[in-house]
Amino acid sequence: HWAIPRPIWKEMEALKNGKRLGRQTNLNGIVQKVTGPGEFTRTALQHAVTQFIACDDQSLAVANKATFCNCLVAMRPKTIKADLPTTYNVMSHLHNEFVGWLQQLKADIEVLESI
Known about the structure:
By secondary structure, the protein is an all-alpha fold. It is built from four helices and no strands.
């Protein structure tokens, strides 16, 4: 017991004798609520697969690979073939997202030029 710091030793002795030093603490501000995954939708799956292919520098053909589709089905067994995005769907979604991003960039530049 000589190696235990004196404040900790006093707390241990108080607990052993049935006394509580201080007051009970709470976990407010320490524990944060984590939201779970959202509801499954085809558009969310298509967006996630498109992000995976574009951001991870994967081939567009990955979307049609049987092993990749099996991984998606393993994550949600209720998935049917119509829910899985194809290479064409991923390519068109990527194109549409890029066009939308360019339009937003153009609008932002026009706002900055008018200031």
